[in-house]
Amino acid sequence: MGRKSILARLFAMKEAGILFGMLGICVVLSMTTSSFLNRYNLTIVVRQASFVGIVALGQTMVLLTGGIDLSVGFIAGLVGILTTLLMSSFSVAPLLAVPIGLAAGAVFGVVNGLVISRVKVNPFITTLALGEIFAGAIMVITNGYPILNLPSSFSFLGQGQVFGMPMPVIVFLVVGAMLAYILRYTAFGRNIYAIGGNRLAARLVGIRVERVISAVYMLAGFLAALAGILFSSRISTGQPTTGANWGMPCITAAIIGGTSLSGGEGSIVGTILGSLFMAVLANGIVLLDISPYWERIIIGAVVILAVVIDVLRTRGRPRS
Amino acid sequence: MRKVLLCCFMLLFAMACRLEAAEGKKDLRIVFIPKVIHPWYDVVQEGAEYAAAELGKLGYNVDVKFDAPPVADLNEQVKKIESHISSRPDGLAIASIDPAANAQIIDDAIAAGINTIAFDTDSPSSKRPLYVGHNQDEQDGFDLGVVLAEEIGKKGKVAILSGTLTAPNHVGRVAGFKKCMEQYPDIKVVFERPDNDDMQRAVDLTENALQANPDLVGIFGCNASNPIGAARAIKAAGLAGKVTIVGMDDLPEALSLIKEGVITAVKAQKQWEIGYWGVYYMVAMNRGFTIPPYHPTGSKLITSADLK
Questions:
Q1: Contact, B179 vs B209, CB < 8 A?
Q2: Does A252 touch chain B (CB under 8 A)?
Q3: Which of A188, A228, B168, B209 qualifies as a FRET site for A196, CA 20 to 30 Å off?
């Protein structure tokens, strides 16, 4: 880095693109609309970012190992159903039902991880297939009907606020901080980068690749479960379709945050910014009165743009 | 440099959008949020815009906007609704993806002081002051069952295309149809598979049903796309007129298939009326007028006799 100015160093950071992109959109929205910069709107935007954002944090860990998890959305949905079912049909207290749900999510994740690391099935295929099974389990359990009559104390998780901060946002940021710490300062975290960067080399230096990979998918399952529970609490129902469409957005958030699909590159900060960016974009599309028919084209274009900027920025530079 | 260019580009883009929006500035701004982008809602929109034009002549400037999530996903719809609450429209009409799960977000909108109503699919457990739409799903399924039974001489094997298993209106129609079939001891339901409101899937399923049951005499479709899908498969198999098809909604292709005699009957919801009355009621709420709690728009049976 040498004696570069703070600004130049900021630009050189991997997350710079997404950070400036988001600040840019925020400036534009606050200038062109009267409703963007009010407290209510900012609260809902960060809360919207949190549900898929928490899933995206787990997805980032998986992508860092060079894998992919297409089942996270369905794990979120299935755990949402299981947890709400425990509370409504079996009268289990939320304080007990939530940990059981989280544990179930971790177990689903471990199943993914074991099939991938021990049986050596390609992650794409494994999680695609297991995702179908989780999705099917939701239908078998619910027959398509939502789960109602949840205890009112359960709604605090998704709807409550602490010091004006919505609970899902607090969970999102706390989990993000923990994962950032783990990735940076623990052997487990550095092993994840090592495996994604060069799996063979990682094995040669004695990293227990299978264990790390299983643990990463377990983490992804756990975080998906967390998001599923938070969203069920947000809408006060166990909804069979929860998470069914979270697969792509959570990968998108990680990618525009600078995580590489080929593994070894990316960061938690980038994914948090990526999730916020997607939520601001969705909010902006509504506030600016842009036709809903164009929405997916805009989101797709933004992803391509983000990736292209990243490629241009790193071109000719040795891979770190 | 690139980032600066990018920012400039976005700024220009946003301003362009804003200018476009500002040109159409109206006195009352009304937003409809359907479940998903679907041609069915285009007819609701036509009705809503007709009402806005009528009100325009009376001196009320009403701007009607439809903003649907690209997929029928509650999370996406909640995002849309929350963002619209931020923009503070004068009227907000919400079609519930799930009657129970949407209650919370409808109540949020009402708590934020927005005039909010339910349209298309109701959310009875919410605090919405009014529901405009048609919710006799079981009855529709039952009525279509009667038409089908009469047409096939009250005996034989029939198939059900059950739509989306998580859509309460599809589930209700299937339940009504099955209840009707119980009255006919000689009719057997031999096939029941979900098509997820996907026309191609409905074609495939109908072909499968015919393979498994060559003596099939009737098909019931519980949404707008599956009677059309079934009809395409029946036509391709050269069985038009031999297998009776009944289903929901009057999309243009379904109507031309009725004229051709491939589909026997559809139950059409009067969704144009839903849009039309929805706008009037939301304007009335803004003017402080009394509104009813429920406006049933009903449905009607359409057969080839109605299309002459």
A1: no
A2: no
A3: A228
Instruction: Determine, yes or no, domain membership for A2.
Output: no
A270 touches chain B (CB under 8 A): no
Distance between CA atoms of B30 and B115, rounded to whole angstroms? 9
Q: Do A288 and B69 touch (CB under 8 A)?
A: no
H or E element at residue B301: strand B299-303
| CB of A74 less than 8 A from some CB of B | no
Separation between Cα atoms, residue A243 and residue A82, nearest integer Å? 14
Nearest to B101 among A44, A239, A245 (CB): A239
Distance (Å, rounded) from C-alpha A275 to C-alpha A252? 8
- Any domain includes A38: yes
The rounded distance, in Å, linking the Cα atoms of B150 and B303 is 13
Tally Cβ neighbours within 10 Å of residue A210: 15
**Does the structure show a pLDDT above 80 at B11?**
no
pLDDT tens digit sequence for A154-200: 999 998 889 888 999 999 999 999 999 999 999 999 999 999 999 99
Query: Do B26-134+270-298 and B137-268 come out as alike in CATH topology?
Result: yes
Instruction: For residue B83, give the 3-state DSSP assignment.
Output: helix
Check if CATH label 3.40.190.10 holds for domain B137-268. Answer: no
- Is A318 inside any structural domain? no
Q: pLDDT tens digit string along B85-117?
A: 999 999 999 999 888 889 999 999 999 999 999
Domain count, chain A: 1
How far does the CA of residue A193 sit from the closest CA of chain B (Å)? Answer: 28
**A72 backbone φψ class: left, alpha, beta (φ>0; ψ -120 to 50):** alpha
Residue-range domain boundaries for chain B: 26-134+270-298, 137-268
Tokens of B195: 């098509």
Q: CATH top-level class for B26-134+270-298?
A: alpha beta
Question: What DSSP string runs through B101-163?
Answer: TTHHHHHHHHHTT--EEEESS--TTS--S-EEE---HHHHHHHHHHHHHHHTTT-EEEEEE--
The alpha helices in chain B, defined as continuous H runs, are 2-23, 39-57, 74-87, 103-111, 137-151, 168-181, 199-212, 226-236, 252-260, 271-286
Determine, for residues A236 and B104 on separate chains, whether the beta-carbon distance falls below 8 Å: yes
Residues in chain A with CB shorter than 8 Å from the CB of B14 are 28-29, 31-32, 284, 288
Q: Which residues of A touch B171 (CB under 8 A)?
A: 144-145
Task: Check CB contact under 8 Å for B74 and A242.
Answer: yes
Indicate which of A287, A291, A309 best probes the interface with B, i.e. most B CBs within 10 Å of its own CB.
Answer: A287
Burial of B304 (0-12, 13-18, 19+ CB in 10 A): middle
Question: CB-CB: which of B37, B105, B112 is closest to A292?
Answer: B37
* Measured distance CA(A144)–CA(B222) in Å, rounded: 15
Residues 58-87 of B with CB under 8 A from A: 65-76, 78-80, 82-87
- ipTM score of complex: 0.76
CATH assignment of the domain containing A118? 1.10.3470
Q: Is residue A3 part of a domain?
A: no
